[in-house]
């Protein structure tokens, strides 16, 4: 008998019967404007409504002691909070996105039951398999073989510094971030790398004064703890570095940690100071509980003066419970008297998720001292268990330059990836949202049915990947 897959799962006790209702297209609601004195009317509006799929099924008891236990398993499989992929084995190259609707009224016998499961698809279209194409040319054509428009994702691997990035179709629709350079405009770097530490130059740092113990090591690509030292409270190694003073700057800490047990603790911090060793602020990720697994990000202006005082990010707005693995960034960006704190987990695909951004205006210039010293540490508390894994992927410090009226800054450099996601309506650089760079006239355009000619600008600046799924009525 035919079967179906939902959420990527097929149940061997579910058999699809004849009589299923899978309409050839989603229902269309037409609005007709009738004008007195004229025959017929005018089509004023068309609306595609959700698709409903009715599936008659036979449920065989098989390995369940009774049908009631089978129904519990069925409910656990089918009831979801969001749309999930639904695939029928007689149409394996098409995917619907559905939720179960209404109830299942079973006619029950001793060893089997039969009834009709109703699915509703808020997105009324069905999808083919994902297409992924790569182009090194700046002008190319792709064929949308679906029966309606497709929603593409453009990924531009940057080959040269750029002040803007644009993709345009043959209908003159375009998406763009940044600013094209005018002939009388100077192109400048807004940021300059001062520190990029990932374990390669730890010998250029020194151990600061204080109650520190243990030492760091390098994996070649990250900073890890070689020896945690010992102590009744927080204990572990720390390193410090002195730089030429900076007025405006960005500090970014990229941390990865994995804790499998509730009784594991850790703390990863960077503190930064002005020329007179006044503490300007702190960035941190830690878990200081022994009765649950959680990850708390903290970002503070100035020195510690009390719990929750001067904390822009803390347990109040970034406390992820049950998260065993966390890899992501904590960042401060200072421009004038504006301090922007940002934290986000970075997925394996490079997207920033679970993000938070907070702004502090230092109107009284209490923290306006020039950045001179950077310190980082990794610690464990008392005799609690250390994490399964914890490392600093990188610590970056960048100088921020002021951009003049007749200057245009670069927005991306070789090694960066710019993403125009027309499906999720996102604009990203290296997985981070950059909608503030969007050009006013840009739009998230679709791929028309049939051939689509596309142009990427500026020329000779990108290798381009396009991902999309053919859609069908």
CATH topology of the largest domain: Jelly Rolls
Total helical segments? 1
- Separation of termini? 27 Å
Give me the count of strands. 37
- So, CATH architecture of the largest domain? Sandwich
The portion of residues assigned to helices is under 10%
Largest sheet: 8 strands, antiparallel
Shape verdict: globular
**CATH C-level class of the largest domain:** Mainly Beta
The secondary structure category is: mainly beta
Q: What value does the average pLDDT take? A: 92
The proportion of strand residues reads over 45%
Radius of gyration of CA atoms, rounded to a whole number: 29 Å
- Taking pLDDT < 50 over at least 5 consecutive residues as the criterion, the unreliable ranges are none
């Amino acid at each position: 008998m035919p079967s179906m897959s939902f959420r990527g799962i097929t149940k061997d006790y579910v058999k699809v019967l004849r009589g299923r209702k899978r309409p050839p297209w989603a229902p269309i609601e037409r609005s007709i404007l009738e004008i007195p004195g004229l025959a017929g009317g005018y089509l004023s509006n068309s609306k595609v409504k959700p698709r409903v799929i009715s599936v008659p099924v036979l449920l065989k008891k098989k390995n369940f002691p009774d049908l009631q236990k089978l129904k519990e398993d069925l409910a656990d499989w089918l009831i979801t909070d969001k749309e999930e992929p639904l695939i029928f084995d007689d149409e394996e190259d098409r995917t619907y996105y559905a939720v179960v609707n209404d109830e299942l009224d079973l006619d029950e016998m001793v060893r089997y039951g039969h009834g009709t499961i109703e699915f509703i698809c808020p997105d009324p279209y069905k999808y083919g398999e994902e297409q992924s194409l790569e182009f090194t040319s700046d002008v190319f054509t792709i064929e949308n073989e679906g029966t309606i428009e497709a929603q593409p994702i453009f990924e531009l691997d940057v080959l040269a510094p750029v002040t803007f990035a644009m993709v345009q179709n043959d209908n003159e629709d375009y998406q763009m971030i940044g600013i094209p350079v005018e002939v009388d405009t100077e192109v400048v770097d807004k940021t300059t790398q001062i520190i990029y530490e990932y374990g390669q130059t730890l010998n250029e740092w020194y151990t600061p004064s204080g109650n520190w113990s243990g030492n760091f090591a390098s994996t070649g690509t990250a900073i890890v703890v070689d020896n945690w030292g010992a102590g009744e409270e927080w204990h572990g190694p720390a390193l410090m570095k002195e730089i030429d003073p900076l007025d405006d700057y960005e500090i970014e800490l990229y941390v990865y940690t994995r804790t499998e047990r509730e009784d594991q603790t850790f703390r990863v911090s960077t503190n930064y100071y002005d020329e007179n060793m006044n503490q300007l602020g702190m960035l941190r990720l830690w878990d200081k509980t022994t009765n649950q697994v959680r990850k708390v990000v903290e970002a503070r202006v100035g020195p510690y003066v009390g719990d929750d005082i001067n904390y822009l990010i803390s347990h109040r707005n970034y406390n992820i419970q049950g998260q065993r693995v966390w890899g992501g960034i904590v960042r401060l960006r200072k421009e004038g008297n504006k301090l922007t704190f940002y934290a986000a987990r970075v997925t394996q695909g490079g997207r920033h998720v679970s993000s938070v951004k907070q702004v502090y205006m230092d109107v009284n210039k209490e923290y306006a001292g020039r950045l001179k010293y950077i310190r980082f540490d990794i610690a464990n508390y008392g005799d609690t268990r250390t994490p399964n894994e914890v490392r600093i992927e990188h610590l970056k410090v960048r100088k921020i330059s002021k951009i003049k009226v007749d200057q245009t800054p670069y927005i991306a450099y070789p090694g960066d990836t710019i993403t125009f996601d027309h499906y999720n309506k996102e604009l990203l650089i290296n997985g981070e949202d950059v909608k503030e760079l969007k050009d006013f006239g840009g739009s998230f355009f679709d791929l028309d049915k049939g051939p689509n000619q596309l142009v990427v600008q500026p020329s000779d600046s990108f290798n381009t990947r396009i991902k999309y799924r053919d859609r069908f009525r």
